Every structure is written in C-alpha cells, then in structure tokens.
Description:
Blueprint: H1 15-27, E1 30-31, H2 32-39, H3 48-54, E2 58-61, E3 64-67, H4 69-77
Antiparallel strand pairs: 1-3, 2-3
Amino acid sequence: MTGQTSKMNGDMDNESLVLDLVEWVATSPRSYADVMSAWRTTCPRMSIWEDSLDERLVSVHNDTVYVTTRGSGFLKDRGRVGR
C-alpha cells in the first residue's frame, strides 16, 4: 500500500470484529445495504466497515460487497478459512 501504513500486523484496534465482517462477507457476497445495516456505526472507536475498506479487505462493486484477495489472505492468516 503506497503511502499508507497497514494495520494488519495485529495493530488494528477492531481486528476481531473486522475479521468477523470479512468472514461474513466471504460466505456470500452481500449487498451494500445489508452490510451498512449490519456493520456501519458512527462511533469513531468502532470503525469496522471503514477499517475493512481502508485495509482493502473488502471492496464494493455495483452495490455488492466482496472479499478481496487481500481479505482472503487476512482470513487464512488467522485460521478462519473453511469455518
């Protein structure tokens, strides 16, 4: 990630919740509306959706949220693949 510092090395404050979000999306692509309904918050300390996007773990295309290759690696590195 050029010009940005990644938080993926255990420094992400909400890592366990980000992991849950990415795993949830990995089971099946979700509509943007469903993801916003379930995960968006206005609390600056609970920026799960924003952290997932900032770390490029998920992406949005045509109002559908998908796990990225990076997100799949994030799951695999934490032993959450195949659950």
